Amino acid sequence: MPEGLFFPVIETERLTLKPLAINDAESLLKIFSDPEVMRYWNTPPWKTLQDSLDFINASNDSMQCQESLVLGVYLQSTGELIGKCMLFSYDAESKRAEIGFGLGRAAWGKGYINEAGEALIQYGFSVLGLRRVEAEIDPDNQSSAKTLEKLGFSREGLLRQRWEVNGIISDSAMYGRLKSDHMN
Ligand SMILES: CC(C)(COP(=O)(O)OP(=O)(O)OC[C@H]1O[C@@H](n2cnc3c(N)ncnc32)[C@H](O)[C@@H]1OP(=O)(O)O)[C@@H](O)C(=O)NCCC(=O)NCCS
Predict the structure, then answer these.
(1) I need a labelling partner for 50 at 20 to 30 A (CA). Which of 95, 138, 154, 176 fits?
(2) Count of helix runs (H) and strand runs (E) in the chain
(3) Which residues pair with 102 in a beta bridge?
């Protein structure tokens, strides 16, 4: 697949989704060092600028290898970085990938992930040729569950005691959306 397909710039009504740049590191750290944002994540909150730089570099490497698509979410009106969304665990043969997203607290509740998520899913279906997009969330994460349902995902199962982070054990709820679920 042409390399450029893993470095897209996607415009939606209010947002631009594009690869993260090194000079996003500080804004990204502000968002992902917030324990409220990271409450249901399977890693602890970030601590240092290096965590942020490591994430940006690892994201770029994984896009170079065509393993994932990690995009910053920017407000078109101001250019501000408000979060990130991604398609990862891409399996070209099985035509599936997993979706993930996270926004800074000030950007919650404005339907931004509905907009960004739908654009990313459509990109996955139409450009990357995906047949299935899946998501794994903490079943206690009501906001994420609502967001996935609004995005047309079905809850497909529960994996018990799947994670242990800082001694806390949690289950995973699995969601899926097929290309054939939503033919517009
Ligand atoms: C989950 C998340 C991505 C949702 O994105 P969003 O753009 O805020 O989504 P929406 O505006 O459609 O809101 C979805 C739900 O979030 C909840 N929510 C919205 N604003 C909220 C706020 N300020 N405080 C608490 N919950 C809020 C509501 O339950 C809302 O559903 P409703 O509109 O039907 O009431 C975002 O809240 C987030 O980044 N959370 C932290 C990171 C995270 O948990 N990511 C998912 C890990 S898999």
Answers:
(1) 138
(2) 4, 8
(3) 84
Closest ligand 1 atom to residue 113 Cα is: 7
pLDDT at 165: 83
The CATH number of 3-133 is which of 3.40.630.30, 2.60.120.10, 3.40.50.970, 3.30.450.20? 3.40.630.30
Tokens 């982070």, residue? 165
Q: Which helix (H) or strand (E) holds 27?
A: helix 25-32
Ligand 1 atom closest to the CA of 137, numbered from 1: 48
- Measured CA distances, 53 to 37, 97, 112 (Å): 18, 24, 24
Spacing, Cα 41 to ligand 1 middle (Å): 14
Q: What is the pLDDT of residue 182?
A: 65
- Mean pLDDT of successive 10-residue segments in the chain (184 residues)? 91 98 98 96 93 98 96 98 98 97 98 98 97 97 97 98 90 97 65
Ligand 1 contacts CB of residue 99 (under 6 A):
no
Which atom of ligand 1 is nearest the CA belonging to 40?
A: 44
The verdict on the CB of residue 112 being under 6 Å from ligand 1 is yes
